[in-house]
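README: folding subset

This subset contains proteins for which both the sequence and a predicted structure token string are available. Records are stored as plain text. Below is the entry for Response regulator transcription factor (247 residues), shown exactly as it appears on disk.
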Amino acid sequence: MRLFIIEDNFLQKDYLEKTLTTFLEKRPITVEIESFLNADEFLKVHKIDSIKRTDAFLLDIDFKTRMDGIDLAEAIRDKNAYCSIYFVTGDERKAEEIINRGILPSGYVIKNPERIETVEEQLIEIAQKLISDAQSHSSVFEIKQGNLSRFIDMNEIILVESIPHQRGYLRLHTLKENIIFRSSISQLAPQLNTPFMMTNLKSYILNLNQIQSIDKKSGYVQFRSGYEIVVSKRIIKKILDAFDELY
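--- output ---
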């Protein structure tokens, strides 16, 4: 899960980031936190089209740039109806404008200079909700690495394969990285019970949406990432049958 903090006051940005990092590092979940001083800084690093439904935002409302927090949230929401957006503000009256612009925020952090401790309480409440949402999200599944849990978006999976001569270990290929973890195909398959995941093979779980081509004669299955596997004609037939059912 990625959490983006965008706050134009450096001290407040630092406080938000440290508070959330301290709380989340004690939890069995991987959260990547990135902070920016304004919308322009954020947009230099990330394209709005690349935002995932599992991403979350803490947005200050009043950036002193061409695009304020509400403008940025509106642009994000136009492209992604599911990511979590929380506004940080000292002015509760802004909620009416936000609602009228159809942004549908997940909530607010209300800054009260006279009661700074309430900000920490609100941040912890938000962090707990984000963890709960990640765990219950239908397109996200969990893998355990030691005492930590990682939550992976099924849409980013290319395939999962058993590792030869390493019984009880799997290699997960995603669009961003490869992960080796302790499990088996039979244990993992129920967690990936979605139409585009093929889970009825002994050594593989395949994302049918990531397959680019199949060579029936040679047994090569090529994925959009360029990765290839070689399988038997019997497995090729199963994959083609799965495509017929899906499409």
